Amino acid sequence: MEILQLDAEKIVVAADRVRKDFDKEKLQRLASSFRKLGQIQPGVCIRLEDGSFQLVAGERRLRACRIAGIPFLFILKDEASKLMLLEIEIEENVNREGLTWQEEVEGLERLHSFREGQKADKGQTQSLDDTALETDRARSSVHRDLEIAEWSKEFGEIKAAKTKEEAWKIIKRYKGELLRNQLLQIAVAKDEPEGTETVGIAQSSECIIVSGVTIPKKLLLDFDNRVILGRMEEQLNRFEDGSLNLVLFDPPWGVNLSQVSNTKGGTDEFEDKEEVFTENIQLWGKMLFKKMALDSHLYMFFGIRHHEHAFNALEQAGFSVNRIPLIWYKQGAHVTRNPEIWPGRSYEPIAFARKGNRKLITLGSPDVIITPAPTPAMKGIHPAAKHPDIYIELLKRSAYPGDKVLDPMAGSGMAAVAAEEYRASKRLDWWLIEEKQSFRELALENVIRGYNKVINREPIDSSALGHQYDTFEGTVAEDFHELEPGSQEWMIFWKAHPEAQEQMLEWKKSQELGGAPF
């Protein structure tokens, strides 16, 4: 098969060709490539009766040759092999507009694989740079599309995505789940040999490095133990009756989240039907009330349209409420699918409920709490993930030293991210329960990353956290045994005598009905 060449201006282009518009900037880049490397792939022509040559395939290459001022390389259609025609067809389709994204990435993969086969026969390799140059694309774009094509073969959810961008988000979600699975396997493998490495995870004799975070193995195992997989209704039995001092509860709101917010392929779905909330909230409230200490607090997030139902359920469970919700204002959030009809939602109500007579730590705190809105990166695969700052604020209001804190429907685990910030100053004994495996793994990963990495900021002085009781005035008692655990005087003694904190926690536990959950 002979490759011919002719002055590009002499090649006849039929006036009725389908493609009319060509990107001038892209043609200039292709022409520049031809000047440096030549025309890599010939076009296809037919010979007319008058002896001239008319283009069949390769008009982009022909136009680039004209711009570059070089001859056009081509073969005659009758002499082209089936493989050559297939290759040209693929190249043409990859660059044709109007294809679905699935057809586009599949065509690119076929072209790349075809080139690989051709060069392998000659002992050569086809790099991503080669394919990028031949298709006039950025190398990163080629790499991403080839990866999307590969994943689409294995996962129907990816292939069914509406756009290439949505498909890529799903792939990133799958990658995150695979990484978290690897993390969990290492976390529970106490006898893992030293030097074992996985994607983003390195291991030494004493510590494991997870995505740049160095964490002692012992602490990782502790986190793995505290993030419990399972349904709240079943896993609450692990905890003694009367053992929980503070519950941070974010049940499904029953507002059909998928119909309200713009959740996309990068997030996992979870059940949020109205009947799930209305049929279960009273049962959930009673179960939590039974597990909570005689003097304890509960904060429950809920959908504003279920205001009456939420407070009724808490009252019927035995809690004291004033039916006035706290309002969490999320700066920058405007969630709505119908911006021309309804305003965007930028707040969440929180029901505050009391069992017994436990006092608030920060007296007179406002009923409006302002934090930044959670970012998409912060949410990860969880469509309703919260900013950890809202939990920081609730802990400041209600978490006393040594408290046992539970989030029974943990989602992305931000309650534990916040509680872990107080492990040093308040010795909080936090626990999470999460039913869905992927969310449980996300929660564990977030706790390991820690508050500052989750919110993407530089660490701050930890002494600024967890010491709201520093503002209390009064004299320090001589013996903590004379004080009521959790009282203002107790917290003053706690601050003044760090050497006695272990004894204070033991004594506090001996005064309570509950104990450790296991």
User: How many structural domains?
Assistant: 2
Largest sheet: 8 strands, mixed
Strand content range: 15-25%
Radius of gyration: 32 Å
Protein described:
The protein has 518 residues and is an alpha/beta fold. The chain has two domains: 4-155, Conserved hypothetical protein from pyrococcus furiosus pfu- 392566-001, ParB domain; 214-459, Rossmann fold, CATH 3.40.50.150. 42% of the residues lie in helices and 15% in strands. It has 21 helices and 16 strands. The protein has helices at 24-37, 59-68, 82-94, 101-120, 128-135, 139-154, 156-159, 164-188, 217-226, 232-235, 257-260, 274-291, 307-317, 376-379, 388-398, 414-420, 423-426, 437-449, 451-454, 488-496, 501-511, and strands spanning 4-6, 43-47, 53-57, 72-76, 197-198, 201-203, 207-210, 213-216, 227-229, 244-249, 292-301, 326-331, 347-355, 368-372, 404-407, 429-434. α12 (274-291) runs parallel beside α13 (307-317). The longest helix is centred in the middle third of the chain and has 25 residues, at 164-188. The radius of gyration is 32 Å and the shape is elongated.
Task: Provide tags for this entry.
single chain; alpha/beta; Conserved hypothetical protein from pyrococcus furiosus pfu- 392566-001, ParB domain; Rossmann fold; 2 domains; four-stranded mixed sheet; 21 helices; 42% helix; elongated
